[in-house]
Amino acid sequence: MKKFYFLSILLFSVFQIVAQSHPALDRFLGASYLRGASISIMVKDVNSDSVICSYDAEREVIPASALKIVTTSAALEILGENYVYETSILYDGEIIDSILNGNLYIRGGGDPSLGSADLGADRDMVLHEWVEAVRTAGIRTITGAVIADESIFDTEGVSMKWLREDLGSYYGQGCYGLNIYDNRYALYLKTEAPGESPKIERTDPELIPPVVFHNHLTCSQISSDSTYIVGFPFSNERYIYGIVPANRSSYKLVGDIPEPALFIAHYFSKLLKKEDISIACEPTCRRILAQAGNRNPLTECKTLITTYSRPLKDLVKIANFESNNLYADAFLKTIGLKYAGNEPLSSFGKGVKILLKHWQEKGLDTSSLWMFDGSGLAPTDKITARCLNDILGYMAVKSPTGQAFIESLPRAGIEGTVRRTLVNSPLKGHIRLKSGSMSRIRSYAGYITKNDRIYAVTIIVNNFNCTQSQIKSDIERLISGISDFRF
After folding, report:
1. Exposed, middle or buried by CB within 10 Å (0-12, 13-18, 19+), for 122?
2. How far apart are the C-alpha atoms of 107 and 268, rounded to whole Å?
3. Handedness of CA 429, 377, 366, 110 (dihedral sign)
4. Which tens digit of pLDDT belongs to each residue from 383-420?
5. 411: burial class by Cβ within 10 Å (0-12, 13-18, 19+)?
6. pTM of this structure
7. Alpha-carbon torsion 241, 243, 249, 250, what sign?
8. Which of 456, 478, 446 is CA-nearest to residue 48?
9. Distance between CA atoms of 252 and 148, rounded to whole angstroms?
10. How far is Cα 1 from Cα 435, in angstroms, rounded to an integer?
11. What is the pLDDT of residues 146-204, one digit of tens each?
């Protein structure tokens, strides 16, 4: 009797999978390199909420950058699509006879887009506006210092769950109350003959305070590099490992600015001095002042200028188009500013609390959603295809910011990080996807539209035993096969 009961349950479970299966899905799952892989898939019609096909949709898997869908949709919902970040230049003391008897402050609001390369504008435009505001105020001498105030967020710029290999990288840049230039610098090398070590030429921008690079690179007869720039936040040391192409007069690597707030205080001071505005004291930031015992908040300051970011819907589009980790983490921390509890949480943790509460209030089951950042870089981030599909479905049919969210996802085969996906498919331009990839992880999530109907698609594969190009190609065939559209 027990055997019959067990067999009945097993057959029922198999029937459930078959009932929601599809020939293209069966072919995909039959690949030998998926033995031992963790796979979670769901495709459903968001208008009727009917499932087209699914496989292990309740399996918790690592989403990589597909997690940005959770963060960016929540940011639009909670903050509003027209939310803007503010950054202000203030001063204390008095201005008498062109002398500021006090300090100049850069008060950050968590804006991830200051001087961002993804804005397509002069990166120093905002800083030049600040310099002009100081000149217009008649200030020619500052008896104090330029102080960066990044205290709107805590000093945990990177998630404690990130891997060591990500710390110091261009994509693992920290997120702080003050950010600049995507918190990245370019490191230019002059590479030598194979087997030799390249010479470090310069950084752009010039890193102030200077960073010491421990160069363990080797030149080789290759066409592209395989390198790691490794270092911790606030540290002025970086270690560089790997191989770079030989015999190049100029070769560029990209890393993270160790402490953006302190950097921007130094950089702004440098620009002011170029305009013959003298500053008596060394630039600093709130973290350093707090360590020295000065934890007093800014009071009785006067504002010289406030600059505003583009509307959140534009920044969300950049985050999803370019898979910008800094932007996504800034959104999560900004959401966390609404946290009013007494639990001692990091800025990341506060954001997660508010985000989970928001989706629960919308009737979504978030028991399978585990977040430790907003970008998906933490390998401890977990989600199921069903949970991600539920969020996609909600944003498509219920959210007042749904249109802005849908348009934030790039069209496959045309733009963003999926411009080389489904290029030769009839789906090209008709499917909006957020992609994600890490070591042995590949994910896609987004929307297919057909005949005025919207289908939410979530495909997450962990621990496959093949190349990234192979799994990408087979997932493309899976999406095309499931869709079976004729445009």
Report:
1. exposed
2. 13
3. negative
4. 999 999 999 999 999 999 999 999 999 999 999 999 99
5. buried
6. 0.94
7. negative
8. 456
9. 29
10. 48
11. 999 999 999 999 999 999 999 999 999 999 999 999 999 999 999 999 999 999 999 99
